[in-house]
Specification:
Elements lengths: L1 E10 L6 H19 L2 E6 L6 E10 L2 H18 L3 E11 L1
Antiparallel strand pairs: 1-3, 1-4, 2-3
Length: 95
């Protein structure tokens, strides 16, 4: 079993309230889950208006497959969010 993990930080300029931030993130998390069958969560910076940190996990039997799906999910996220994505990391662990 291979656990592939993606986490990234989103810069969210122009966000005026936590409610607005949460709407954007809820939409992103739901779409990532539906399209790529990932487990997705906001893992840090919950009280920040300017930043959000998202984590995604996929369990598969292939490191190559898991990392490929996560790269596609990252590209999808870059096109969907109104801010800039930075501090990305993708890695896999064999269990």
């Amino acid at each position: 079993m291979v656990v592939s993990i993606l986490h990234f930080t989103i810069d969210l300029p122009g966000i005026a309230s936590l409610k607005e931030k949460r709407q954007i993130l809820r939409s992103l998390k739901e779409r990532l889950h539906r399209k790529f069958k990932l487990s997705v969560a906001e893992i840090d910076l919950q009280d920040s208006l300017k930043f959000a940190q998202i984590g995604c996990v996929l369990i598969s039997n292939s490191r190559q497959y898991g990392e490929s799906v996560l790269h596609k999910a990252l590209n999808f996220s870059e096109n969907m969010v109104p801010g800039r994505i930075r501090d990305t990391e993708i890695f896999s662990e064999l269990y």
